[in-house]
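Our preliminary data section would be incomplete without showing what the modeling component actually yields. Below, a chain of 522 amino acids is followed by its predicted structure, encoded as tokens that our downstream tools consume directly.
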Amino acid sequence: MSNIITDDKKIIIFDTTLRDGEQSPGASMNTGEKIQIAQQLERLRVDVIEAGFAAASHGDFDAISQIAQTIQNSRICSLARALDNDIKQAGLAVQQAKMNRIHTFIATSPIHMQYKLKMSPDEVIKKAINAVTYAKTFVDDVEFSLEDAGRSEIPFMKEIIDAVISAGAKTINLPDTVGYRLPNEIYTMVKELHTFIDGRAIISLHNHNDLGLAVANTLAGIDAGARQVECTINGLGERAGNAAMEEIVMILKTRKDMFGGFDTNINTKEIMRASKLVATITGIEPQPNKAIVGKNAFSHESGIHQDGVLKHSETYEIIRPEDIGIEKNNSIVLGKHSGRAAFKDKLASMGIDNLSDEELNKTFESFKNICDKKKEITDDDIRMIITNEKLVTNVTYELLSLQISSCSAGVPSSAVCIKFEGKEYTDAAIGDGTIDAIFKTIDRITGYHGKLNDYKVKAVSEGQDALAKVTCSVTFSDENPPMIGHGLSIDTMLASASAYISALNSYLSMKNLLSKDTKHNL
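Predicted structure:
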């Protein structure tokens, strides 16, 4: 599997959820979370996973390195500016991957060259040649991007493309970096450059969604000759986001008649699971009416529509819910008396067969605890339990108990018990509200004072006994990015406390990583 897809009818899916997607405000992820998403992308059968920007931070380098050692069936890629140190870090980060790639770039539009790079066109070409040549000393597969290609001039693009292909680039990426172009403009640009390249390299597209045209522009580019598309789960990404993978894949699958039989390697039955995982980890939910993965995408409220769907699903559904991994029966017949074997069989029927013995035991224990409090456990509950167990990896502080109350004056207070290094610590505090009181108590016990940036609570399933999934974004230091914390419980207050402590544990794990000697042989 050393070569990327060359079948002219196959579209290469290059997923950048872990790189460009993470650049969405509030979407930062720790190493464990990135590995979990990478594993799901592998189950999706993504061709190339852009795992991060190795030179950006020690955390990014570490995450890319661990993903490179974990993933077997997808090519692992790191982004790098056209700078020697960036390229070296990228090469070292992906060196242990079974299949690897370096993705290097430089801006090519007049406005970027003049005001950002302050370089002449000739200097930019020289820099690009050096970058690709140096990247080839680390990996065989090099991708080169013309940043802001959407606003670049065709004659100059041809000149630099010719130069980097001669230097060894196998993929040429044409990003519409600011989401400015219309589909017909993308088609014209790609068509001309496809003719110019004449099979010497694969053309790739990376379209942003500032005008809501990322997917449409990507499809226009495919029609004109592009054979790789760069996209993200749920359309995550900077500003208005990137082209949504699930939309591109399902359009090609559903409308093969209009795209000459183009297809992808994606296992579409893993789409919904991937969408939910990314939403859970980042705390950024797709809008309800989002195509393919929005919660209303397969809902029918109109009586006329309901009647039609009941008689024949294709009257109002052009995609079968099962095709993207939505089960029609979302409940299970398991309870607190169910054994581990029955639980494991249920997971297998849900397509979850990749848990280690330790993960299975932890998940089963959490399942049994919830069974004592909840009458009916749904498939979504089980998926969330598994996701939550995987997210809670670096445990420095552990929540043992929580009590909340209000005195006669109505002042909320909380008492929290936390375990740290084998000892139990208890304290209490008052706050402007119950959540504020809980978080202040945790701050008093741990000595770390967090600033809450975002707080979201979501019911995993229906009913009064639904599991509450809490996601919060907390800043513990002005020098470090916000940390995302996750909590899951039938009790929303317990879930909130767990989420806050989860964010703190992620912060401490990051601090520990930064304190280590991670110079990577510089």
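The first strand starts at residue 12 and ends at 15. Residues 1-5, 300-310, 517-522 have pLDDT under 50 and may be disordered. Preliminary results of this kind motivate Aim 1 of the renewal.
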